[in-house]
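Hi Q.,

Before the meeting this afternoon, I wanted you to have the zinc ion prediction in hand. No need to reply - just skim if you have a minute. The sequence and ligand are here:
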Amino acid sequence: MQNSYLTNIISFIIIVFFSFFAIPLSSQSNLIHRIEQQKQDSVARKQLEQSVERYQSHINATDTLESEDFDDDIMENHPASDLYRNIWSRERVNPYETPPSALPDSIYIDCSEFQMPLTATYVTSHFGPRWRRMHYGTDLKLQTGDSVMAAFSGKVRIVNYEPRGYGNYIVLRHNNGLETVYGHLSEVLVSENQEINAGELIAFGGSTGRSTGPHLHFELRYMGNAFDSEYLVNYSNAVILDDVLLITKDRMFGYQVQAKNLASQSRSKYYTVRRGDTLSKIAARNGVSVRTITRLNNIKNSNKLKAGSRIRIR
Ligand SMILES: [Zn+2]
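Predicted structure with the ligand bound:
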């Protein structure tokens, strides 16, 4: 590894040296592109080395345990297994408990084999806050019975039905480290643990679960964390923006702060102070403690309450 790295650096220096002195200006942009490529390759190689290391230490750790886990057998030789620490659960869409803060700052994902989940479609609802809730996917127009295809190759992790949410849905684990979710399906054509190729027919679209009309709810997730699929896909042209997806924490997962705020806003409750009100009266009337009110409003117990002012009680 060390050797090839050195060779790389030397060839890199030689290329740079010769290019700027011997190559005409017209081909220098070409060269810059190649340098960029080399940089990306070395980042990817470093990540691979790290994941191999992690995998080996994981094997060493599990060797000492006497676990003959069926789940581990399923994931054997699965390239994404070390990333997901061999968690192969059908119970939850996100069983990993890995918040974005625990992720590296930037991650490169090979998306070159991407296939559109629908042949002809457009976005009917984007990823992001919607009706005071977070919408963790992209809604894509379809007619009930339209073919739904796997975005990448991989393995079916979940086939399930959620009457008040996704309806009939599928979760796929992909070899490139991503997971995809397909919701509101009318019919599922695959079963759990089945290997899938990119572009393979996996279901027919529909309007099951919480849905107001036929559409595909499509999610991209990394380590359980959903991010906007439009960072990767241009749905109006049915193409991906780049073969390599760069996942950066701030850009992709910054919304989680926003989502938390939305959640606390929808839970919060206010009270308008009436003449003669005291903190303890208000607290008793609303079933909360005085301490909660002073904390939420950043006031002291001794503060005089002004009639007509609005204070937060939840
Ligand atoms: Zn949706």
